[in-house]
Amino acid sequence: MPGAARPTAAKVADRSNDRGIPEATVARLPVYLRALVGLTERGTATCSSEELAAAAGVNSAKLRKDLSYLGSYGTRGVGYDVEYLRYQIAREIGVTQDWPVVIVGIGNLGHALANFSGFSSRGFRIAALLDADPERQGERVGDLEILGFEQVEQLVEEHRIAIGVIATPAPAAQAVCDRLVGAGITSILNFAPVVLSVPDGVDLRKVDLSIELQILAYHEQRKSALLPGLSGLPGDLPAKAVGR
Ligand SMILES: NC(=O)c1ccc[n+]([C@@H]2O[C@H](COP(=O)([O-])OP(=O)(O)OC[C@H]3O[C@@H](n4cnc5c(N)ncnc54)[C@H](O)[C@@H]3O)[C@@H](O)[C@H]2O)c1
C-alpha cells in the first residue's frame, strides 16, 4: 500500500497475537489473574488499580495500560469489579475452557507436577502421565496411572490434548518433543535444561528454576556491593561455585 505507514518488524514481533495485545502484556495477564483469585478468596468484590497492581507486584500505570487492551477501564471512584475482571482475563488467556495436558517423564519433577492441585483450579486437566521406564508404568499418581510413552499418539487423539509438559532428562527431551509434535501437540512446556527446536506453529516455553536463582544471585551481589556488611554473601564460597 504506497504511502501507508507500515509497522516495523519489531512492532509486528511484539504484537504477535491477533488481538494486537503486546506479548509483554500477555505475559502479565496470568499474574493479574492470580492476584484476582487471591482477592476473591479474601472476599474482595471491587478493587482499585493501585490495590490490584500491589497484589500483582507491578506499577499501577502499567496495569491500567495492560487492562485497557482488554477494554477494561474500571469505574471511576469504584475501581474494577474483581469477579468480572477475573472472567475477562481468564477468557482472554483461554482458561475458561478445560485444557487437557500430558506430562512426559514421571520422575521426581513429574510426580510433583502431577500432584500439584493448582493446575486443575486454573483450567488445566492432567489427562495423561507417560514414562518410558517400564518400572514406572502402572504406578498410580492421584487418579491417573502412568502409561508407556509409546501410547502418546493414541492418548493425544483420544483426549484432544494440545499441551505437553516435558520433565525427562535433557538428553531425551528433543526426541520426546518431536514425538509430541508428531502426535499433534501444539504447545510445549519444557523443564529439561536443554534448548529444544520446534516447527512453526508450535509454542514452546521453558521453565528453569536455576536461571531464576542465578538472577536473584546477581541482584544479591549488587545489593551487597551497595550495602557492604549485608549477610549471605558468596564471598567465602569456592571460586568454582560462584563461577569465578
Ligand atoms: N526447570 C527446572 O527448574 C527443573 C527443576 C528440576 C528438574 N528439572 C529437570 O527436569 C527433568 C526431570 O528431573 P527429575 O529430577 O524428575 O528426573 P528423574 O530422573 O527423577 O525423572 C525423569 C523421568 O523421565 C523418564 N524418561 C527418561 N527418558 C524418557 C523418554 N524418552 N520418554 C519418556 N520418559 C522418559 C525417566 O524414566 C524418569 O522417570 C530433568 O531434565 C531435570 O534437569 C528442571
Automatic annotation (TrEMBL):
One of its GO terms (cellular component) is cytoplasm. It comes from Nocardioides mesophilus. Residues 31-70 bind DNA. One of its GO terms (biological process) is response to redox state. It holds the Pfam family CoA_binding. Belongs to the transcriptional regulatory Rex family. InterPro entries: CoA-bd, NAD(P)-bd_dom_sf, Rex_actinobacterial-type, Rex_DNA-bd_C_dom, Tscrpt_rep_Rex, WH-like_DNA-bd_sf, WH_DNA-bd_sf. The keyword Amino-acid biosynthesis does not apply. It is found in: Cytoplasm. The gene is rex. One of its GO terms (molecular function) is DNA binding. Its main location: cytoplasm. Gene3D superfamilies: NAD(P)-binding Rossmann-like Domain (3.40.50.720), Winged helix-like DNA-binding domain superfamily/Winged helix DNA-binding domain (1.10.10.10). Keywords: Cytoplasm, DNA-binding, NAD, Repressor, Transcription, Transcription regulation. This is Redox-sensing transcriptional repressor Rex. Modulates transcription in response to changes in cellular NADH/NAD(+) redox state. Homodimer.
